[in-house]
Predict the 3D structure of the following.
Amino acid sequence: MRTDKKVIRKPKQLLTMKNLLTLTIIIAVYLMIAALVEFHILNRQFTNLIVPIGANIILAVSLNLVTGFLGELSLGHAGFMAIGAFTSAIFTLNVNMPGNPEFFLAIIIGGSVAALFGFLIGVPVLRLRGDYLAIVTLGFGEIIRSIINAISLPAGLDKAGKLIVKKGTMGLSGITTYSNYTWVYIAVIITIIACANLVKSRHGRVICSIRDNYIAAESIGIHVSRFKIMAFVFAAFFAGVAGALYGHNYSNIKATDFGYDKSIDILVFVVLGGMGNIKGSVIAAIILTVLPELLRSAQDYRMLMYAVLLIAMMIFNSSELKTRMQESDKLSRITRLFKLSK
Amino acid sequence: MVNIIEQVINGFRTGSIYALIALGYTMVYGIAKMINFAHGDIIMVGAYALYVFIVLLKLPVIVAVLFTIGLCALLGMMIERIAYKPLRKAPPLAVLITAIGVSFFLQNASLLIFKANPIKFQSIVKVKTIIIGDVAIAGITVVTLVVTLVSMIILTLFINKTKAGSAMRAVSEDKGAAQLMGINVNRTISMTFAIGSALAAVAGILFLCQYQSLKPTMGALPGIKAFVAAVLGGIGSVPGAMLGGILLGLIESISKAYISTQLSDAIVFGVLILVLLLKPTGLLGKKRIEKV
């Protein structure tokens, strides 16, 4: 006779000490940002940076899902962002609703349409792997950009009640600037929690197993394509949300803002922050968005130094020096020192 | 009818420039298994070098062209030695990011030296327009086609007939086995980068004579297009890169003329995606069976 062990499932505790602590930190950080902005402690230049920083964090964390956890290089993340920005802006320009609910709907619509595109493109394309997938995502981003440039966009009604149609190359203008630190902060927190929980869940472990060895994953019966698409759609949704926030921060947007360069920028956040490390993506996105503003005066040299640092870091990361330092425990001693000094 | 012929000839011209650049991508990929994202910027370096040699140093045209090609070949070898060689055993993504770093570096270095404003440049090609029947072919087109054809013939002969060429093929087939046969792998890889960069320099010179204007980001777009061409033809395959480049040029010029200028990029990338879906390794690429 089989003796079935009854698995007693405990109801998941939401109010653990750890979660409460996290919640307190989240609220405290919010209050700090609010105080900094409302009491004008931050100057205009940095207050204006809050929304771009938030959008970049969302982009970096969501791309990390595809590049860091799934292990597939995507060079078209800005394409999803463009879809989110343009659909949400078209929505707020054409619909007359009270401010905040309208913006909330716009964000959801921007994210959903981006996710839909992520799915439509993902289904056929994700059969490819590695470099071929990378070039196709790059191509996809460029297709989005040139299609937005080629079509005409409905930009709301004018005073006489006639529909204004704008040429795609002109972009959209007159967008109400709904984005503020509260919206962005909430979106960032939701993104981070959603991504962190996905990664910790069963699905997340499957995604990581595909990265580590897709043949092994396939051989134990994991439907590789399905989980690839899942990660892709998830990432596309948040990229769309980031696009919506970004678009409603400036009153006009153009398709050229979301080109191949932007995709590369996001990829650099992810790689510099550490692939498969959500905290790292957040920190890298913040630092690399603020740094250019701090170094305005030396801007040309800044990019040159940035390039040199990028190369040096990649070489150091895979050099013998690092392994030797790790073996002799120097690296961890340095990081420990760093932690203590904090 | 005349119009179509002219568009096709234009397509061959842009296509052959793409093919020259794509050859560099594909050779480097075949031998080092990496996408050299900085390859497009070598075109830019070549164009600026030509400008410096001709306008600032007032060298004769032939000498300037040879110096430009030599400089780019040297640059390609240096980039490989400094940035890519330490990463031979690193994961592909790390190498790719390094290549992006190199590309940033080249662009920003030239931005610092030559500033962002476009510089005008007088074409060095003095061939007159040829008229056959009603079809007019610009001198630069003739030169581009001839130069590309000659380069491709020399390259094919080099790869298939010489000892160094066989070494290159051997290394791209199996690095370890090639080393056991006494081939100097490091030198072969260096040589591949030098040849690829020299071809990029030729493409840069032709590109500059065509558009007659210089700016630090001029290499980015042809670089990406050529990369697409290399993938379209099957990355790693030398005839594939030639075919892919010419095809891409034809598609681009015909869709620009008859469909829409704005959509031409979308069509180019759309064709690429379609081809990859039907033939996941490109038109002439070999399928690798993965063994566990």
